[in-house]
Design goal:
Chain A is α+β, with helices and mostly antiparallel strands. Chain A has 2 helices and 4 strands, in the order E-H-E-E-H-E. By secondary structure, chain B is an alpha/beta fold. The chains are: A alpha+beta, B alpha/beta.
């Protein structure tokens, strides 16, 4: 699986960070979240799916490949 | 609950699932059903004519800025393969026959039912259904009407100090309008608990007149809204009155169906609707016993819950599910500050600010119930919530396991 983040949509809510802190990062001064692991390991799938679903602005996409 | 009850639902892969409610919870349950392997027929019924859209911006940027309505539409997976029946409400349920009747008389049979009808604004008794300058805020159409009325010089009175009322007051200030919030309960008390005073302070600091502890005894309306009278007799002139005194779960269509109704549609711990077979519920309409609340029913109105609960409800319909023990999360944007919370802050009996000032731009507060952490709220840095969420996820999962 691969994660895509649309920086034009992201508004730094940080819900992704709450769901999957190993995969996303957002420091206090970041205007958009950052992806730490673009292709996270399979065991993180549930957390990543939750992160994608919990993004209030739908900035995240999970691409299965 | 017993193992027998949990195994009662047959594995559902084919057949037809009817989802009543075509907003966030409805859409997300449809997506989850497909993701989890449901290959049968999916029908979504929605009383609004609009495809699923995002409601949180309505009280905030959608009203503050001239955002187009299309920008609210929720992204949809093109391979969802669902039939949409929009602009028509469900009017009744025959649970024994597994049939939903719609407002146009159509009858939809189902093998599985998802109840996701959400909620509607509570009305102030004694007011006309509509009047110029009188507003409620739930739908995009409500927001468009309100936005059109918020012209320069408008005096606004917001009745109710919950999320919608508090955010609308902030939006009015952003638009440069004079605004008064009249709220019988302390501001944002359902989420902030004892920190609600800080919410009122923040609003006042930004020029909002906040009147707490009083209700409305009358709204004067001739050809339009003119004023409101408070329960202490004070009369306040107004051009626009927004009634934001909470919502009622949309359950009227379920009366007499056998569905158990309390503060919403009552579900068991894994979101199966109590009282009828082959039905689940999700979103604002549903209440269920959260394992962290010793059997008390919980109904949440958070965006994130609608999304998360819909996925769990789909699970229940397809595979039998397991106790739903989420760590809820929510946010509220006001005056340029984003408050974010995790957990069951509304059910806490004790709160402690551990960093910063709760009426300021940066703080962290811990919420406890019977001495145990149940939630946290922060402003300024979402990372402050991470350790709390981690602890709550672990503890709620343990409680869910113990409840099985």
């Amino acid at each position: 699986m691969r994660i895509e983040l649309d920086p034009n949509l992201c508004q730094a809510y940080g819900n992704c960070l709450l769901s999957a802190p190993e995969v996303f990062e957002l420091t206090q001064h970041d205007l958009v979240a950052r992806i730490l692991q673009e292709q996270p390991d399979e065991p993180l799938r549930a957390q990543v799916e939750e992160a994608v679903a919990s993004c209030p602005v739908q900035a995240l996409t999970l691409v299965d490949s | 609950m017993s193992t027998a009850a949990r195994d009662a639902g047959p594995e559902l892969r084919l057949g037809r699932v009817v989802i009543v409610g075509a907003s966030l919870a409805g859409l997300r349950s449809a997506e989850a059903l497909r993701r989890k392997g449901f290959t049968g027929e999916l029908i979504l019924v929605g009383d609004e004519v609009h495809p699923p859209y995002d409601r949180p911006p309505l009280s905030k940027e959608f009203t503050a800025k001239a955002m187009p309505a299309e920008s609210l539409h929720l992204r949809q997976n093109p391979s969802l393969e669902a039939t949409w029946q929009l602009g028509v409400p469900a009017t009744s349920l025959d649970a024994a026959a597994h049939v939903v009747t719609l407002g146009d008389g159509a009858e939809l049979g189902y093998d599985g039912l998802v109840i996701a009808t959400g909620a509607a604004p509570r009305r102030l008794p004694g007011l006309p259904g509509t009047a110029r300058g009188l507003h409620y805020l739930r739908t995009v159409d409500d927001a468009l009407r309100l936005r059109a009325d918020l012209v320069p010089g408008t005096r606004v009175i917001v009745i109710g100090g919950g999320f919608i009322g508090a955010e609308l007051a902030s939006t009015c200030r952003e638009l440069g309008l004079a605004v008064t919030v009249v709220t019988p309960l302390p501001m944002m008390v359902s989420a902030l608990g004892q920190l609600s005073e800080a919410a009122a302070q923040r609003a006042r600091r930004h020029g909002v007149e906040v009147i707490e502890g009083l209700g409305i005894s009358a709204v004067e309306i001739d050809d339009r809204v003119r004023s409101v009278e408070l329960t202490d007799g004070t009369r306040l002139p107004a051009d626009v009155v927004v009634v934001a005194i909470g919502v009622r779960p949309a359950v009227d269509w379920l009366v007499g169906s056998g569905v158990l109704i309390d503060s919403g549609v009552v579900c068991d711990d894994s979101l199966a609707v109590r009282g009828v077979a082959d039905a689940v519920a999700a979103g604002d309409v549903a209440c269920w016993p959260h394992p962290a609340l010793n059997g008390e029913l919980l109904r949440l109105e958070h965006w994130t819950n609608a999304a998360e609960q819909a996925t769990a409800a789909a699970d229940r319909l397809l595979t039998g599910g397991r106790p739903f023990a989420p760590v809820p999360s929510f946010w509220s944007d006001q005056y340029g500050v984003r408050l974010q919370g995790v957990g069951l802050t509304g059910r806490a009996d004790e709160v402690a600010v551990v960093d910063g000032d709760a009426s300021g731009d940066q703080f962290v507060a811990e919420y406890r119930r019977a001495g145990q952490l149940v939630g946290a709220i922060s402003a300024g840095d979402v990372r402050a919530l991470l350790p709390y969420r981690r602890e709550l996820v672990k503890r709620f999962a343990g409680l869910a396991l113990a409840s099985q």
